[in-house]
Amino acid sequence: MPAKMVLLATAILVMPFAASARTSNSFDGTWAVSAVASPGRCTDHYSFTIRVAKGRISYAGMFAGYGSGRLGASGRISLRVGKASATGALSKTKGSGYWRSPKCAGTWVAAKA
Asked: The pTM is what?
């Protein structure tokens, strides 16, 4: 196979992975999260910090390592902190979604710090 064909075939195979890596990395950093509970048996408002690195989400608060999750290349997230779980989406500077725990549920918003 001519060298140009090999180079072209390699570029076609690698480009989708490179684009995915660039997209995921645009979300990397620290995010301030504010979660509000629907009326019920919960505290009305929670604030915490998460860290995003290469598509992985970790809790960045006092008990680091307590929560974790995944971030897709499009910004869709899935996060678990203790017995609570959250889903939603991030853009380059903000995000929003829903959360649920055994006793209550609500919404969340995030801003890149």
From this structure: 0.71
